[in-house]
């Protein structure tokens, strides 16, 4: 009788554990599906939502409301940039600026009072003359972007697979959610026409950082004042990858 009771008790425990595991798996799958849908929606919005097809078209309609900032660091083989800085994809400029002491940087920033999304030119059509000429002189480049999602997450794309994998590893080691985006997938950054792939070698890394993750970097996301520890951890992870691939950095 005791054996029967013990067996029954163990069976109930196993059933309970199985139910918890299944529940966790269902929730995880639900979150992954929701994030997938958010990325797909954002990609469609981005594709159909651009106001302008080129920089020439943009300047015909926008006389001000944007700024171009670039900094060329002597001896740097790397260009870190964002074609959608300022208020276009908030939080991307601050990440780029964190690299300017050691590397060359470029920013196209929206500074309008509102409707900065109108200044978004997709990366495969981004043809602002300074960046077009500048990027050709660098063997490697990293582009920083933002995408709309309530999940704290980073999509790591580009054409350099080894560095992509290293970025994902370093971010995860620092407590961030990140995943590798394969060629042909959404926001993969592998299109040869992508401005990030117009550098001297065609070797690149593209970071797509979710809204929620970018918000988590600042005390006040509207002004981007007061950088939190998460910002430093994130940037230090990226810099660690650069040290790994370039010991002189």
Description:
The structure is a single chain. The chain is of the alpha/beta class. It has a single domain, classed as Poly-gamma-glutamate hydrolase, zinc-binding motif (Aminopeptidase), CATH 3.40.630.100. The protein contains seven helices and nine strands, in the order ααββαβαββαββαββα. The strands form two sheets. It has a seven-stranded mixed sheet, sandwiched between helices. β5, α5 and β6 form a beta-alpha-beta unit. α5 runs antiparallel to α7. The N and C termini lie far apart (71 Å). The mean pLDDT is 88.
Distance N to C terminus = 71 Å
Uncertain regions: pLDDT < 50 for 5+ in a row? Answer: none
Number of helices: 7
What is the CA-atom radius of gyration, in angstroms? 22 Å
E-strand count: 9
Mean pLDDT, to the nearest integer, reads 88
CATH fold description: Aminopeptidase
CATH architecture: 3-Layer(aba) Sandwich
Strand order of the largest sheet: 1-3-2-4-7-5-6
Q: What's the CATH C level? A: Alpha Beta
Would you identify the CATH H-level superfamily?
Poly-gamma-glutamate hydrolase, zinc-binding motif
State the share of residues found in helices, binned by percent: 40-55%
Main β-sheet description: 7 strands, mixed
Structural class given helices, strands, pairing? alpha/beta
| Count of all domains | 1
Order of helices and strands: HHEEHEHEEHEEHEEH
Strand content: 15-25%
Morphology call: globular
């Amino acid at each position: 009788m005791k054996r029967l009771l013990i067996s029954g008790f163990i069976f109930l425990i196993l059933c309970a554990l199985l139910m918890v595991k299944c529940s966790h798996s269902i929730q995880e799958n639900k979150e992954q599906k929701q994030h997938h849908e958010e990325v797909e929606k954002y990609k469609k919005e981005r594709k159909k939502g651009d106001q302008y097809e080129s920089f020439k078209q943009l300047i015909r309609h926008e006389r001000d409301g944007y700024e171009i900032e670039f900094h060329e660091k002597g001896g740097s083989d790397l260009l870190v940039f964002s074609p959608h800085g300022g208020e276009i994809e908030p939080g991307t400029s601050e990440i780029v600026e964190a690299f300017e002491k050691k590397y060359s940087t470029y920013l196209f920033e929206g500074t309008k009072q509102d409707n900065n999304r109108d200044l978004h030119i997709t990366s495969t059509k981004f043809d602002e003359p300074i960046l077009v000429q500048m990027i050709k002189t660098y063997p490697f480049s990293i582009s920083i972007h933002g995408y709309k999602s309530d999940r704290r997450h980073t999509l790591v794309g580009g054409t350099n697979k080894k560095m992509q994998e290293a970025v994902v590893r370093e971010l995860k080691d620092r407590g961030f959610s990140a995943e590798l985006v394969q060629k042909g997938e959404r926001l993969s950054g592998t299109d040869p026409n992508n401005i990030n792939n117009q550098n001297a070698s065609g070797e690149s890394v593209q970071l797509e950082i979710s809204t929620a993750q970018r918000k988590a970097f600042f005390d006040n996301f509207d002004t981007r004042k007061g950088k939190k520890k998460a910002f430093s951890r994130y940037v230090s992870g990226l810099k660690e990858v650069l040290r790994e691939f370039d010991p002189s950095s």
